[in-house]
Design a protein that fits this description.
- By secondary structure, the protein is α+β, with helices and mostly antiparallel strands.
- It has 2 domains: 1-217, Jelly Rolls (Sandwich); 226-332, Arc Repressor Mutant, subunit A (Orthogonal Bundle).
- The protein has 11 helices and 9 strands.
- The chain has helices at residues 27-34, 137-148, 165-184, 191-208, 226-239, 247-254, 258-269, 273-291, 300-306, 312-323, 327-332, and strands at residues 18-24, 40-46, 53-61, 64-72, 74-80, 86-99, 104-107, 112-114, 121-135.
- Strands 1, 2, 3, 4, 5, 6, 7, 8 and 9 form a 9-stranded antiparallel β-sheet that branches.
- β3 (53-61) and β4 (64-72) form a beta hairpin.
- The termini are far apart.
- 41% of the residues are buried.
- Mean pLDDT is 89; it is low at 5-10 and 217-224.
Amino acid sequence: MPGCTTMSGATVGGSAVSRTELRTRDGAVAAATADAIAEHRARITVRDPSAVAFRISSANAEQWGADVVGVEGVRYVTEGAPIDYVLAGALVHGRVLLRSRRDEVRLSEGDGFMYPIGAEYHCDCIDPGLANLRMPLSYIARIAEETTGIPAAALRFQSLSPVSAPMRRYWSATLSFIAGQMNAAPTAPDALIAGQLLRLGAAAALVAFPNTSMAAGLTGGAGPESSAVVRRARAFIDAYAERPLTVTEIACAAGVGPRTVQLAFRRHLDTTPMAYLRRVRLERAHRDLRNADPAGKVTVAATARRWGWTSASRFAGEYRQVFHELPSHTLRS
């Protein structure tokens, strides 16, 4: 397709993750570090000198990242500059008032929130503990176009809060999982897993926070050439399953748009391109375990991570459902 670039080295999220961590009692140092997350002017009032502590853990991949912030013993008031990316989080502890020109929310433990895009905001925090995701708006817009058909340029987020209490809980749980993998897992995610975590965060934001894609639905049908589209897409997935592929890249390889490839897979295979990719990766993991020396250095956990599973138990469950045995049994046999 014109203007279609496939497998470029600049795939968002498809890079190794670097981590930084700060622990300090100095508010100025903490504010300077937090300014890298979102540019702001900070006013810090000490409430309990004996309890003052700042902890900021950041994990950064290609154009996106996750942060875990803990502040104790202070009131932290910020005047935030407009941002051009999605910065969404959940409150772990403390109290927060977040206000934009159009909206105001008071947050308590477990509440999800999104900072306004393209507008100044005010945030008044008392002993806050936060987890944040920083994601490119262009990437989320592309996911919205792939999944709903809305033009990427038409995506707008419309509120600081999730659409409902169930979505608030869903967003908080998803964010907790992503931040745990990015910031707290024993080893930082590799490029493949980082890309999948970013896609998970983007998809969660699209269903949790009010936005213009929610009015769009899957309509239309696959054309007469859709079987050829599926063949080309499958060949591409089979060749590059170890890469952090996106629906857009798969569609580009098949010579069509994301919407068309989605509909073609649904019509001919009753699945999605990403679900097909996951099945291919599962089969590759099965092959690796079957061919491994049981006395060698190959492990189930390492194989799972290589093919994109951050949770060994989830990998084992999916593996058993398809191959009717646990991966550890395949490795030993």
